[in-house]
Amino acid sequence: MNAVVTGVLLGGFYAAVALGLSITFGQLDIVNIAHPTFVIFGSYVAYIVNENFGLDPVLAGIAFAPVFFLLGMALYRVYYVSFERTGQESLSGLTFFFGLMFIIEVFLILFYGVDYRLVSAPYIGKTWHLGFIDFPLRMTVPFVVAIVMTGGVFLYLSKTYMGRAIQAVSQDRLALQLMGADPIKVKQIALGIAIATAAVAGALLIIIQPVEPSVGRLYIGRVFAIVVLGGMGSIGGTLVAALMIGVIESFIATFYGPSWAPAVGYGILLITLAIRPQGIFGRA
Amino acid sequence: MAAILIAGFLFTQGADNEFYFFASYVVLQGLVMAVAWNILGGFAGYVNFGSAGFFGAGVYTSIVLNKAFALPLPLLIVASGCVCGLLGLATGVLTLRLKGIYFAIATLAIAIMLETVASNWEYVGGAAGTFVLQPTEFFVFDSYIELLFMVMLSLSILAMIVARYLSSSKIGHGLSAIRDDELAAECMGVPTLRLKLVSAVTMGALMGMAGAPYPFFVTFIDPISAFSLLIAVNAIAMPMIGGTAAWYGPVIGALLLGLVQEISTVTISSELNLLIVGVMLVGFITLAPQGIVGLARKLWLKKRSP
Question: How large is the ipTM?
């Protein structure tokens, strides 16, 4: 029973990590393979702020979300000018993000080494007991924040004009232009939002576990599995898929040992790609 | 090609500073990986992020067969080539039908899966790693490292011959048609899936062969070093820097980047050397997407037209 609860809590957090990729990969067709590395970057920002000013990591993540938003906008400009405009996105664009991932990782290693870093907050280490079920707060707090953030992005995408424009941009660029929206600007804002969620997700990650620069690589498999399984760009699908992967991983870790857990995300990803590449919730 | 081999042989007989052989081995290993990567990545436009997975599979095939049957090195290389060729085939069958991005992610997935399996496999030392003894027989060479250098030089030449043959043959033309417009190629009767599978198998086999001698080179091997991300990044960066359109692009990129890395590892630090690879990779793909070969061609054309 505790494995299920842990899995669900973990899954909610995975949704926060996958959220940004669901927007970029699912809706903009930008394969930001560096997304998990931006999450790790977010973790380090939360760590630095927490270490120096004692600010709560979640608040630090939210405070830095606007900075990450601008970073994402700038990133899209570079991506657009160098690859999207020239039609090079498949080979060079993909490699660009791969190189970016590598650079960020090496930078973090250069400045902070390969030691595990962690944050301190009053709720880390405490546990709520409901009957015989445990709710470790270090996982419950990130779960709640993640669900709120996912819900917020879902409302933004479905209710506001800009949100709908983001959903439309990859489907029918011309129609969007005729409606009076600039597709480049729309995509720029969308990538900004995606990277901004990485700031918060990073803060959540470092609450759940200590972080070192190469942790991001494990998350690549997980988040791509979640996004593909969730049907590419559907926020609801992403959440359900994230919960599923969280529970499966938690079971594998309980019964076979945690050293196999990293393979779960990638394994599910491979199976999904082989059997049902459009995901559970995708259109055929 | 034969001249290079003879020159290499004379080098082993003449030079006696072992460092040169260590450094050249690493550069040549990068060259084999880069040329292999380019067969699928450059010719057909399918990005492989998991080169380290194929390399590592070659390393571990070699370790297992060496431990179980103590096979000689040439047989280990052939066996690793076969195993990784099959791995390439399996990856291809699973994902080459889909868009290129899925193939890219699947290769990354396979690399991580294999690393997890290797870390959990006690027979080959698990996550703690294992020691491999170098044979004590050197044949005509002065030391084992010279022998390994010749082995890697031969593999490099083999890789270049294969890549050159593929790029000038019908297969190469089919692959570049796939890269430019897969749908159009399919409609023109190019057997796209079969061509992609052929190149995936070739790529896998060459990468596995590059990995097979590695345990004897380092003598201590653990999953983290066998599946190192640097191997995957190098295999992508070298062709991208040299130019992906021609078979000799990755050769130029590998020699240049390999040399820069060897020099910077010795003179500065190994972390900074990683940064150089990353920055050069991103710099080249944003500013010179055709690589050095593309830049040289542009200059050549400018010179000829007044």
Answer: 0.78
